[in-house]
Protein 1
Amino acid sequence: MTFFTFSWGKNYIAIRGLLRVLGHELDTPPVMSDRAIDLGVRESPAFLCYSGKAVIGQLLEQLEMGRRNFLYMSSFGPEACRCGGTGPYLEELASSKYPNIRSARLGGNSAEESRDAMRAAFPGTSNRLHDRAFFVYFVKMGILDAFERGGVRARALGANVGRIERIERESVERLDRAQFVPALFWIGAVHGFRLCALRKKRRAPILRIGLVGGEHILSELDSIMARIKRTAERGILLDWRSGFFHINRMADREHPEGGKMARGYLEAQCEPYLHPAPGGTEILTCARAVEFAKEGYDGIMHIYSFGCLPQTAVIPAVKRIGKDYGIPILSISIGDRFDMQSLETRIDAFLDILHAKKRQEGAR
Amino acid sequence: MNAKKLYLGIDAGSVSVNTVLVDEMGALVARDYRRTRGMVIETIRGAVADIHRSLADGAVIAGCGTTGSGRVLAASLVGADLVKNEITAHTAAGLAFNPETRTILEIGGEDSKIIILEGGMPVDFAMNSICAAGTGAFLDQMAGRLGLPIEELGNMALRAGGEAKISGRCTVFAESDMIFKQQTGIPLDDIVKGLCRSMVRNYLNDVGQGKKISGPILFQGGVAANAGIVKAFEEELHAAITIPPNHDVMGAIGIALLTRDHVRGKTATDANYPSAMKSAADIAGNDFRARGFSCSNCANNCEIVAFESGGKALGYLGGRCGRWEGNA
């Protein structure tokens, strides 16, 4: 059976891997169209964030096109994210308009909950099969994330952009095709090495900027983030430490790996700024901003979806972190304005501020 | 005899094209402000031609810079040594006017900005986000609705005995509110004063967003000509507002100054550095045009604008991946 889902960057590759283990297939999500946005705005509650509206619009658009089996991501973590919590609304809306639909929910507040939700959508399958499917999903997510970081780093260090793009394209295509875990790790290692080899003899980055914000935006490296990623081509290292991959694992409060992904550690980082600590996305954003500030990054870009409640709630905390550590912050809300010129203006002006600050510090 | 070097700054905005010439000392030599009325290319051409005509004997344009939302288009049309965002350009002009400046308020046709400075350095900025309610477009629309020339609004607000409370959150709501106040018989002057106040409130809430606004405060952009808005700012901020003499062309002055520094840097390493600016005849006579098309390189199908002249593409604008702009 072939499912469809929404366009959230390259995440569909990991979801496709998961579905293939279960014996199903996933269509490559379509590009966000004007029709999808119109439908999303028309059919979603007014208070829903831009991402939520986009998700609902794409669902309805594909149902209009005759597709009936969809998989959606919902409720990652226990926090009050309106977009993540649109699952029941989505299902009700879809089934009221189109009979005979089939849906599967990917996500939950713990690994068990996520697995149970998927098992409910695929009756007759075993826990073991789902554990394997989720493992493939997480491995692919992790490798995609590593490729993105590697590509941005190589750009910042002055490697040839054409070659980086070629390696990125090849590695993602191979990752998409491969299903067996040893092969996935092999692809990750080989292509990671190719990216590292590109940047070895190159220049040091002029500035270091930490990216924090809505994990779904950061993972959308095919769309708006592609534009932000290009900043690296000016010799600026962009770094981010959160993504779908992490927030999903973090939802498990007792994360066995501990360390810098453990909720306790993250809550301690943002304790002076978010108290009591709210949901996962706020904690990650705040904790990572503190980390970047402590590590002496030159600036922080806070990127979030227009109308995103958790990210809006965390804006004052991020600003305070910037003030306390003397580090400039640029907040970019995606979805309220679409002209690239305006986005470019903000980024350009922010970089000018960072350069001027660095020059002044150098002069001292 | 050495030619007198001048630097051309072009601020191609959404409502107007502002063009200036500054000399080596940064002094303003010539200025031009004209509304685009939807014909950006023709407006830039006309402004640059007039600036060229104003050149004194023995003066040469040693460099050209562009800023504003149409900066890439302007750069393709005239040939620019430097293309910079308008925030940096306004900062440069504000600091040149008063190096002690701590806050720059800038309100243009469709954009508004606030720039916070410390020790002669920008440390923070913001631009209007979701709508143009706190920009010149708001005043333009309200003046049109009242059937008044935009230039009259400032003096009317100063004459007002009272002040009508008008919602400034949204242009549409403000218009409904304004009509209601007219129907209740509130004097026009009071309504205009209320409009100025609501626009300032909107600006401070949406753009200012709780930033620490401290003096000296400069007010730049075309809207600074409106005395009613200036007074409303002073009353809201309880601080004096300074309007630079050439407040409406500060973006152009800023980019001209930045271009001067840029060209100086280049000539320091290469004495024969040639400016990228095209000749006056070329700018006036070329068949420059903008053409839109959809990129089919990937599924995003981005809308791209190509700048063409003489059958050749000079540059591109648009797209998410930057593949086209790289060719500009």
Protein 2
Amino acid sequence: MAVTEKEVLEEIREQLEAIKVPNAREAQPESTWTELDVDSLDLVELVKALEDRFEITINDDDLKPIESVGDAMALTMRLAEAKEGTPA
Amino acid sequence: MPPPEGHDGVALVTGGSRGIGRAIAQRLGEDGFDTVTLGRTSGDVQADVGDATSVQAAFDQVRERYGPVLVLVNNAGERRDGLTIRMSAEQWESVIHTNLDGAFHCTRRALDDMLKARWGRIVNISSVVAQRANPGQCNYGAAKAGMLSLTRTVAREMARKGITCNAVTPGVIETDMTAGVADQLMAGVPAGRIGRPDEVAHAVSFLCSEGAAYVNGATLAVDGALAA
């Protein structure tokens, strides 16, 4: 089943909340890590959670241009779709 | 004191079957931690700590059999002394491999569990030779000094996550390694005696306690003022 934007955004909000990011519930696709006060270690935790939840692998190179919630959503959806397109 | 309520996990002591490691494992057990020892050929689980794959397999085993690792004591060590001018590359690499690579690989794996729990204690058993050079121990001293830098870096990286990383630098401690040379070694110790493994274990116990939550990136000397 295809992963929806809403699903990914909700997962990101939940994880940011677990990481104790202030105002995690109000995170929007346009929210940047700087605005949310998400540091590099927080990002590592978020990535691990997204990998586990959506059964994807995010490489360090993919992470470099990720600066906002929307960037993370787009990357997650792209990788999840690519995974679904791969024969088992 | 075991991990705070809701943080179920174990204390893993590398090189915990003898000497200082055994005293630490015993003490943490008395403090209420479920304690697991890791050794090359002995202990509850076996691994070559210097080998990343071996460490990963051991941590998977610990997690499966006992639970997540919330306290890690990097104590596994090896000494192969010799004057620098006579030291072989193999002698150098082997000691760095066990002492320094080992601390890194185990820390790397334990952090996964600690980060999830938002609680963790890492204690690196360094040595007085990290601060006060000893002829014949360039490999051991470099590895142990490297552990102090590893300690401080991990402390800074993890400070916001409820995880502390500290080091203990034992001086001359009564173990199998110092048996027979105790008198000679004792001569340079201001305290006038050599230390006991349980005195090192006591320092580790403090660093693993809830009361030490704000002690992070520190080096605690247990050396009878040898490095002072």
Protein 3
Amino acid sequence: MAAKKKRKTAKKKRKVTKKKAAAKRAVKVRLKLTPEQEAELAKAFGKASVRRIKNISIEKIAGYLASDVGMN
Amino acid sequence: MIVRSLVDDNLPDGWRIETTSVLSRDGDNIGILHPATLHEIVGDEISAILGPAGRVALTEGTNYIEALSACGALLLGHREEISKVSTLLQSARMSRTTSYLCSISGNCRQVLTAVRHIQTARVAVVGCGGIGSLAAMLLAGSGIRSLTLVDNDTIEESNLNRQIVWSKDDIGQLKSDVLARELQRRFDDVSLALYPRRADRSFLQLLLSENDAVLLTADSPLGIVPAARRIAARLCSLLVTGGYSFKHAIVTVTNSQSNSAGKEGNWQSLEFCIPPSFGPANALLAGATTSALLHQLCELADYGASSIFGWDVDTLKNSA
């Protein structure tokens, strides 16, 4: 019984570690724009759109190779 | 293709993405969609986009065009700039380099400036052995159109195991001559100047003042690298060096910000010296040196005043 409980706890611990590792991989950032790029975007899409673009969070991953995404 | 129809479904009315990578709105060209942009498909919907800046999830309320902008996949520009980038992306000679430059540029103008810097630069490659011969090929392949090759060595049988440009028939010929022949076979738009001679300090000074950049991979005379770095710093010229110190592969970048001070050592080798040259590491050094040179030349990277990069060849760990 005790051994079973120990195994369950170990499994739980491994799960948490995996989750933490995944979270570590998926660092979220926001796009940094130069004043020139910001002006270009504002001209093309409007200032409200630039505000929304700057608020979109980006997952910094080393390309699709580091993700679970397959290439077609 | 399924992804293409899903992309069209996500575009607002009046927007189009051409197969030439051009994004337009009501017939007006807005920018270039990075041609390597990936779409993550879940079921029959696009769930995320992967661009140069990373992955953006397409959640409810996220505008597809704004998501493209956020992940760096959209390069805005004027009509003419867009047309020129699109043409480069269709050209056999420059398409892959341009696609890479699109990954590190903020707009079409930056891409075109980088391409212009590359295509108008004069670069001297000093030392055409294991690193230099491959580096010259990579520079020409990336779009450099004016190369000066400096090497007084002839091809020996012992070179063939790691210097991939030569074949058995070339043994005994000058490396600079054979390299020039092979470069012309691949790239007929490259102009070449050949100097089958050793690079002493006065000649290096001349090369550094007459070229936009010098790539130094020669391992002799001993002490040539620190001497060249001092001259380049004094002249505010761009110098990139690549070579070995035992198992350490070392790249240095000297530019207009570098300091010419530093003491001169007097190192001497034994008369039976065999400098290390390991084929796979030569390729690593050729790639690293040419990459640093091209990025600095295009002003798309700033290596600062004192840049030395190094790797332990066996572990690939940073050793600088």
